[in-house]
Amino acid sequence: MGYHPTPTMGSTMNTFAEEFPELALPCTGEVFPDPQLLVLNEPLAAELGLDPQWLRSTEGIAFLTGQNESYALGYAGHQFGQFNPRMGDGRALLLCENGRDIHAKGIGRTPFSRGGDGHYPLDAALKEYAFAESLHALGIPTARSLAVLTTGRTVQRRRLHPGAVGVRVASSHIRIGTFQYAALMGPQVTERLVDYTLARHFPEGASPLDLFDATVSRQADLVANWMRFGFIHGVMNTDNVAISGETIDFGPCAFMDYFATDTVYSSIDARGRYAYGQQPAVMMWNLARLAEALVPLVDGGVQKFTEHLYRFQPQYAAAWDDKMALALGAPDCAEQLLDLMQVAAPDYNAMLAGLAPGNIPPGLEETPGAAEWTERWSKHDPQPRNPIFLPRNHGMQAALQQAEQGDMTRYLLALEALQNPFVWDAKYEKLGLHTAVPRAEAEFTTYCGT
Question: What is the per-residue pLDDT across 336-384, written as a single tens digit (0 to 9) for each?
């Protein structure tokens, strides 16, 4: 078994569905009254060999909304710690593999929809597009957004929203939950899935332990990236963890404003399971669930996978040290800075962006020990590199509200800033993407759009 994609425009090639009919059910998207392409990621389209003019055509829009041969992917998952044996794409379809998966969300009901309507609010689709562009520009592995289309329908959530289809691109949509689903079907299906995933993502590997080790390494690096930039995924269920090590399914996500390890924004995370500071531990817990799915394939599997699972902690710690050394422009200074931030709770990313040798970091001016830290740090002749522009909660919300009302000006300007996060430009100053709102106004709640 191998993985040999041959990208073509509008291709219906889908090796995953061909190999795993038990994990991918044929389905077509809903016929919408007035589908219109609203935002198109032309550079990404070019990477995929897709002609933007074709994507804007009637044929291209039909492709993007799942009118051609498409598939709803099946997976299981632990949702907030509770196992659900049959989940799957309830409002999404895998359109094709064009070197990478092209996957549309909000296409209507599928065989996995359960009680859902299969629709997607426009503000959630535009949010995912913006955050994906931000993560990509920061160098964080992520699914990308190819397009957002309006559908001509309205969607009822907390209020009425314009309906949308969001089209994203990922190395694949094989998740920890995919392995959990396969494991319920027996070891033969799991073994086939291991072989396919190795060929597609880890061709140097040859065994379930090799796949597990590679996944552990990628997830350790991914979470270290999240922590370094203050990113909170918001819903780290096992079905939302891609084996490829890309950020995926981050609907209620946010970037932390004022530093606190227990920061939670998601409306559905009432107990803080997926709080900012919990993310490394949760990822290790999720990896343990992957190990459980793979154990039957390896003699002495419980002991071996347990030993390999515990490699996550040192790998994560090393990755975090490396990334914070780049953020600070100096080694061995991050732990002491974290201690100071725990006391002062500064605007996390604005503080990092404002680092300057000889100057106490912004927000720490009155914090005991900050002057001494600054003196030690400055002796390294540091050259920190940190983003200026991020999809800040209140700034992005203002852009999304205007976009839903039909004015895309602020949103498109915000996209420009997020695609160039390390470069100051005064034309982005009024967007509210470079600093948090005052602390008294900073409370915010995110929603997943389901």
Answer: 999 999 999 999 999 999 999 999 999 999 999 999 999 999 999 999 9
Q: Which is the catalytic residue, given 123, 195, 213, 239? A: 239
- CA 111/CA 347 separation, integer angstroms: 44
Rounded distance between C-alpha atoms, residue 295 and residue 302, angstroms = 6
Reported residue count of the chain is 450
Helices (H), 278-330: 279-294, 301-309, 312-328
Element (H, E) at 239: none
How many angstroms separate the Cα of 298 from the Cα of each of 12, 98, 191, 304? 35, 33, 10, 8
Q: Please enumerate in sequence order all residues whose Cβ is within 8 A of that of 237, keeping only pairs 6 or more positions apart, or say none.
A: 77, 78, 79, 80, 177
Give per-residue pLDDT as tens, 16-39: 999 999 999 999 999 999 999 999
Compute the distance between CA of residue 66 and CA of residue 314 in angstroms, rounded to an integer.
Answer: 43
Distance in angstroms (rounded) separating the CA atoms of residues 246 and 140: 8
How many other CB atoms are found less than 10 A from the CB of residue 273?
A: 18
Judge whether residue 126 has pLDDT over 60: yes
* Dihedral class, residue 316 (left if φ above 0, else alpha if ψ from -120 to 50, else beta): alpha
By the 10 Å C-beta count (0-12 exposed, 13-18 middle, 19+ buried), 203 is classed as exposed
| 239 carries an active-site annotation | yes
Query: pTM above 0.70?
Result: yes
- Residues 6+ away with beta carbon under 8 Å from 225: 138, 139, 140, 141, 231, 319, 323
Task: Please state the φ and ψ torsions of residue 421, each to the nearest 5 degrees.
Answer: -75, -20
| Ramachandran angles phi, psi of 190, nearest 5° | -60, -40
Is the sign of the CA dihedral 261, 262, 266, 271 positive or negative? positive
Q: How far apart are CA 330 and CA 335, in angstroms?
A: 12
Spatial separation of the C-alpha atoms in residues 374 and 369, rounded to whole Å: 9
> Which of the four pLDDT bands, split at 50, 70 and 90, describes residue 11?
low
Q: How far apart are CA 405 and CA 417, in angstroms?
A: 21
Integer Cα distance of 165 and 106 in angstroms: 5
Asked whether 328 and 355 are in contact (CB, 8 A), the reply is yes
Phi-psi category of 332—alpha, beta or left, where left has phi over 0 and alpha has psi -120 to 50?
Answer: left
| Contact between residue 265 and residue 212 where contact means Cβ atoms under 8 Å apart | no
